[in-house]
Fold these 3 entries.
Entry 1:
Amino acid sequence: MKEIIFRFNLVDSVTLYPNLKKIIQAARRRVMRRHTKMKKNITTWSSKLFLPEDIVAQWARKDLLTEKNFKAVFEILSDCRELFTSEEV
């Protein structure tokens, strides 16, 4: 808190302290919600894509796998699996 007040040269920091505390707590809650949602997505996507969670997590962190492009990634992986299984026969 003191670091924020010092870094941004906030005037009358005593009266800003409660407001800053609320802002920081709200930001932490948003971050925690985002992390929780991402963990749930990774678990769900992992089971649907038949891939290990660590690989799905890496793709999600690199923005290669998102909620918007999940369907496309799923179709691409399905096509690849079909291609590899048909060659083995």
Note: The radius of gyration is 22 Å.
Entry 2:
Amino acid sequence: MANISDATVQISAVKCGSELLEYIKLAQDNAYYNIVGRSGELDVKEDGDTWTIEGSASGRWSYQHNASRYFPHPDNLEDLRHWVGKEKADEVEVSYRKLLDVIANNGGSVHISYGESESGALICGSGEVALIGRIDGKNSSQPFVEYSETYEALEYNAENVSSVHEADEYYDCAKCESVVCEIDKCAICRDLVCEDCEMYSCKGCNASICESCTITDSLMGNYCKSCH
């Protein structure tokens, strides 16, 4: 089974908000790997012609796969069809082409910005996919969509994971060295320890202590070094 990355996603749309929302709901309906949030609970903010959608998402190995396959280059939609499956490939492609047409003809844009991390494969990075409506005045004066995709891979550590997710703070566990959001602190050595590494409660003072600072009495239980 593939590892699943966690992503923090922001999508902004100019002059194509309703078409983007329609596409997202259709494309990620019953999908295992989503674009942003849950279709029925999307956080949408409208400010005139600009719509913004924010939320979390899961990626197959890397969320970069989600971004590039749900929002592929206009000249190559085979990745999109394969990603969503043959049962709804035609319907999703029609919706995506409709979005592209509106972007091109209205001079609109869509920007998908995200930060992601995945501990199993040590993935950490941020990226963006941009769809921007342009008019080629030199050749045909026909509107088209300019496409770009960027990705910056970062070293997997607590500081970088925190930076790509912004809202949450991450730490290096002192015991297993994993990067985690939820963490406890030993009252004695002050090491930060993740929830997967066992902590103990001192019978004397009730302090939360790590295994290294725990003295176990076979009759009385666990004590910290100060209370033993």
Note: The CA atoms of residues 170 and 179 lie 6 Å apart.
Entry 3:
Amino acid sequence: MSSRSFNRRAPRAPPPPPDALSVGGITLPCLQLKRTARFYAGVVGLPISGRSPRHVTLNADGVRVVLVDAGSTAGFSRGKSQTMFLELVVPDLESVRLRLAEDGARIYPVRRGSERRLLTTRDPEGNVLNMVLAGEGRSAS
């Protein structure tokens, strides 16, 4: 055996992750920008923090949710089978349920075995929304 094989160093471990990771924002390409913005602001209750003819920015407790007009914004597209899954924490499920019903949104039955109180629906683009009662959302651990 050569001495070279005994002098090999173990591969270095990857560096540790940063101390804090967070989501600053999410972008949803939309085919129906005005209708989808009205749904998120008026029905779900996310405040609008900015808008232009091609996008609407909403604030979800410090996380930007940017709705982008996929039909007129370069680099964004939306296929009919493309779906996002979002979970939003809300302070009152009943008031959200009433607004969803008033808007004509379909509310799906709670899955059997679910330990959390939640509402599941779809936005006008077909994205799935789980709305979870505050205090019952996923833990940050």
Note: The longest helix spans residues 33-44.
